[in-house]
Amino acid sequence: NAGVxxxxxxxxxxxxxxxxxxxxxxxxxxxxxxxxxxxxxxxxLIYYSVGAGITDKGEVPNGYNVSRSTTEDFPLRLxxxxxxxxxxxxxxxxxxxxxxxxxxxGTRLTVT
Amino acid sequence: xxxxxxxxxxxxxxxGASLELRCNYSYGATPYLFWYVQSPxxxxxxxxxxxxxxxxxxxxxxxxxxxxxxxxxFNLRKPSVHWSDxxxxxxxxxxxxxxxxxxxxxxxxVIP
Lengths: 112, 112
Description:
The complex is a heterodimer of chains A (112) and B (112).
Chain A: E1 4-7, E2 10-13, E3 19-25, E4 31-37, E5 43-51, E6 54-57, E7 64-66, E8 76-78, E9 87-94, E10 102-103, E11 107-111
Parallel strand pairs in A: 2-11
Antiparallel strand pairs in A: 1-3, 3-8, 4-5, 4-9, 5-6, 7-8, 9-10, 9-11
Chain B: E1 3-5, E2 10-14, E3 19-21, E4 24-26, E5 32-38, E6 44-50, E7 56-58, E8 64-68, E9 73-78, E10 87-95, E11 99-102, E12 106-111
Parallel strand pairs in B: 2-12
Antiparallel strand pairs in B: 1-4, 3-9, 5-6, 5-10, 7-8, 8-9, 10-11, 10-12
């Protein structure tokens, strides 16, 4: 099993550009999450999904969109990138009832 | 307000010394409790979790944590620290709906 994979590892965006952060898991987990990690701030939940076709907002959803068309994939879309979205983004997955999240290696995004 | 507090931003210990990392939470009911470790440039890895029952839980890598309801605390301990334990440690709580909230983290430095 590859676990949770994220692409790209690094990306630099200009203000106003858009991009999609990819997340794939091969563990057949029904729950998937997107977090952002800012220095000294811990992880903040952006969006999560409890299964294909179902998504919901977390603490900091503004400026982001998600979709979940398959169990495996949970892409995060940034529209009109802003400097405030400079962060490290982590995707995680989990089986319902287990409560153990498996994290991907992260995507470091810089918006200038 | 609901929160997860890790009061120590940074801790330095000598190799072989004991370690205790503090975590307090502020939620109405007893949430599910977790400790994660993050090595530089990596995603988070679960060390241990508490749902109910015995208030002293054992985890991987020789770590343990004790839940104290009266103090709303879930402190992480290790009797003898190894140089490889140097990392960032995050306390997290899980609420109904499978949402998770993380503390701001404690950075551990281990000196020889």
